[in-house]
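Sequence, please.
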C-alpha cells in the first residue's frame, strides 16, 4: 500500500516510473551527485562504465606482477598464485562487462539520498496487485548483483512455478559504501544504521508493510531490522544468524551431532578469516592496495569462492562482482561496515533479543547457524529450512531454492 503521508514524493516517483524515456545518470556523474543539496527525490539511474576504464583495467591486468607461489601453490597459505593468474587472464581476455552491464540495465534502478548518503537500488514492481514489498541486503564481497537472478522469480511467480499470492515487489539496495552507493560521505555506517536507512527507503517508496531478507553482512542488516522492529516490518529472513556460545556449559547439552559439525565448520572459517580482522581494524590501510591492483582485489575477495573449497558460482559471477568493486573503487569503503560493527561491539553489551518473526535458511556449504544459540538471541524464529545443496551465496548459487523459502516464510505474514 502507498504511504498517504508522502503524496508529493510518491507523485514524483510515479511520474518518473511512467516516463518512456528514462534520464541517465552514469558512473561519471558520481562527483556531481555527491555535491547536490540533500533531498528526498528518487532519480533514475543507469550503469555506464566509460570505455577508458575498461581499457585501463585490461592494461593493469596485462602488466600485473604476481606473487611468487607459496609451497604447494594451493589454498593453505591463502589464494594461490596459479588461481589468481588464471582469474586475471579470464578477466582480461574473456569476461564481458558490457553483457553484465546490459543485464543490469534491463531492470529499473534509482538513486536517492538518505542522511547525506547516496543510495543506489533496483526497484522492480510486480504486476500482482497484492504483492508484498521486500528489501534484499547483500554483504561482502558480494554486491547488489547477488540478487539479479532472483528478481524475476520473486516478481513474476506464476511464470516460475509459483502462485500469484507469492509475488513480491523487489527492492535491492547497494549497501552504503558498496558499488554505486558511493562515495561514502561519513562514518558510522554500521549494520544497525543501514537497517534504519532501509526502513526510510521502503517508506519513501510508499510501502507501509514490507519484509526483509539478507545474507552474509546482509544477514546482520536483516537482524538489525528485526531489532529495530519498525512499524510495517512483517518479518525478516536471513541465511545466517551469527549466534555463538555464551560460555554457559549448559548450552552444549542441547547440541546435536549436526550442531557439533557446525561448530567445526565455524572454527575452520575463523582460522581463514584474516580479512575480517583487517577490515574490522584497519580498513583504510588495505584500501590503497585494493584501489590500485585488480589482481590484489581478486585475491582479497577469496571468500566469494569459499577460500578455495569451491561453490556453485560461475567465473562470470565472481568477476562481475569484482568488477563492481573495481569500477566504483569501493573495496575500502565497503570494508568499513566491518569496522563500524566492530566498534559497536566494543561496548560489550549483551546481544539484544530480536522479537520480530524470523526465518532462517541453512545451506550445507556455508557457515551453519546453530539453532540452540540462535533461539537464545532471536525468540521468534518461525521458519527454519536446511538445504543439502548451496552455500554462502545462495541467491547466486541456488536462487530457486532460496525463492521457495522466501515464498513459504512470508506466506503466513502477508
Amino acid at each position: 500500500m502507498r504511504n498517504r503521508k508522502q503524496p508529493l514524493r510518491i507523485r514524483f516517483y510515479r511520474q518518473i516510473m511512467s516516463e518512456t524515456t528514462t534520464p541517465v545518470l552514469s558512473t561519471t556523474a558520481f562527483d556531481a551527485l555527491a555535491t547536490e543539496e540533500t533531498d528526498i527525490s528518487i532519480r533514475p539511474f543507469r550503469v555506464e562504465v566509460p570505455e577508458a576504464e575498461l581499457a585501463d583495467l585490461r592494461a593493469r591486468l596485462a602488466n600485473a606482477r604476481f606473487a611468487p607461489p607459496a609451497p604447494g601453490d594451493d589454498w593453505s597459505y591463502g589464494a594461490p598464485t596459479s588461481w589468481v593468474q588464471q582469474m586475471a587472464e579470464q578477466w582480461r581476455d574473456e569476461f564481458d562487462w558490457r553483457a553484465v552491464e546490459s543485464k543490469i540495465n534491463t531492470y529499473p534502478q534509482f538513486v536517492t539520498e538518505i542522511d547525506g548518503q547516496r543510495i543506489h537500488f533496483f526497484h522492480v514492481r510486480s504486476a500482482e496487485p497484492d504483492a508484498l514489498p521486500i528489501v534484499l541486503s547483500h554483504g561482502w564481497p558480494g554486491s547488489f548483483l547477488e540478487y539479479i537472478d532472483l528478481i524475476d522469480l520473486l516478481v513474476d511467480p506464476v511464470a516460475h512455478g509459483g502462485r500469484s499470492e507469492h509475488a513480491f515487489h523487489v527492492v535491492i539496495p547497494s549497501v552504503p559504501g558498496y558499488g554505486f552507493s558511493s562515495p561514502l560521505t561519513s562514518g558510522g555506517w554500521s549494520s544497525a544504521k543501514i537497517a534504519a536507512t532501509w526502513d526510510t527507503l521502503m517508506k519513501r517508496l510508499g510501502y507501509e508493510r514490507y519484509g526483509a531478507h539478507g545474507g552474509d553482512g546482509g544477514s546482520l542488516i536483516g537482524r538489525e531490522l528485526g531489532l529495530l522492529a519498525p512499524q510495517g516490518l512483517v518479518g525478516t529472513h536471513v541465511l545466517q544468524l551469527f549466534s555463538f556460545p555464551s560460555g554457559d556449559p549448559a548450552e552444549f547439552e542441547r547440541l546435536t551431532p549436526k550442531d557439533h559439525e557446525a561448530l567445526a565448520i565455524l572454527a575452520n572459517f575463523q582460522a581463514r578469516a584474516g580479512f575480517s580482522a583487517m577490515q574490522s581494524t584497519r580498513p583504510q590501510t588495505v584500501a590503497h592496495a585494493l584501489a590500485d591492483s585488480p589482481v590484489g582485489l581478486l585475491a582479497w575477495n577469496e571468500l566469494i569462492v569459499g577460500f578455495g573449497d569451491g561453490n556453485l558460482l560461475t567465473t562470470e559471477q565472481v568477476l562481475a562482482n569484482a568488477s563492481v568493486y573495481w569500477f566504483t573503487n569501493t573495496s575500502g569503503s565497503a570494508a568499513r561496515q566491518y569496522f563500524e560493527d566492530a566498534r559497536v561491539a566494543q561496548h560489550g553489551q549483551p546481544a539484544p533479543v530480536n522479537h520480530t518473526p524470523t526465518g532462517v535458511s541453512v545451506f550445507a556449504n556455508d557457515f551453519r547457524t546453530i539453532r540452540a544459540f540462535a533461539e537464545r538471541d532471536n525468540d521468534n524464529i518461525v521458519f527454519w529450512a536446511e538445504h543439502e545443496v548451496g552455500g554462502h551465496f545462495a541467491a547466486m548459487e541456488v536462487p530457486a531454492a532460496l525463492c521457495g523459502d522466501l515464498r513459504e516464510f512470508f506466506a503466513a505474514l502477508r
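The chain has one domain: 1-66+89-414.
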